[in-house]
Write a structure and sequence with these properties.
Blueprint lengths: L2 H24 L38 E2 L2 H19 L3 H6 L3 H6 L2 H11 L2 H4 L2 E10 L4 E10 L2 E13 L2 E7 L3 E2 L5
Antiparallel strand pairs: 1-2, 2-3, 3-4, 4-5, 4-6
Amino acid sequence: MSEKSVTNLKVAVTGFLFGLVILVASACSPIPPQDQATVPQGDEPEQTQTPEEPSNPTEPEITTIDCSQVMQSGIETTIDAQTSSFAVGDYELAYSYASPSFQASVPLSRFIDIIQGSYGPLINSTALGFENCLYYPEPEIAAIDVRFTEAGVTVYALRYAMVETDLGWRVDGAGALEEIGAGV
């Protein structure tokens, strides 16, 4: 297999795992999903089948654990540093906090366009709050919820996917920016 094929395979696997991280972690997040239908008390639908075994017993079970304090501190340091880089307009430094697989698939110019076009509030945030850090040991990836604050009011939330590298934790991606409040 050529080196390019191996790199493409790694990028595809990382993308798949990121999607899996987001899917699994979203079930554990206190960030409220938008447009979630609620069933009134007493009118719950009757369950017709009971779950016994996974539909595909050959799929590996995903095991997650809460991040250790040291691990979460490293992840928070990376996200803080990247966000601080955005605040001073140093997109090249911010890009250096992205994972190798992210950098292989997204050039710096596109990264800048993405941040300025869809993640502008990251540039203006005055404080970050972190919660729900989950670690996936195989491969070494983590997911963490981050709340961005402006003028003392939490206004946006993101779920970050992080990858541990030789340089420490790096950002492999982030979920869609969700507005959860209004600044003053």
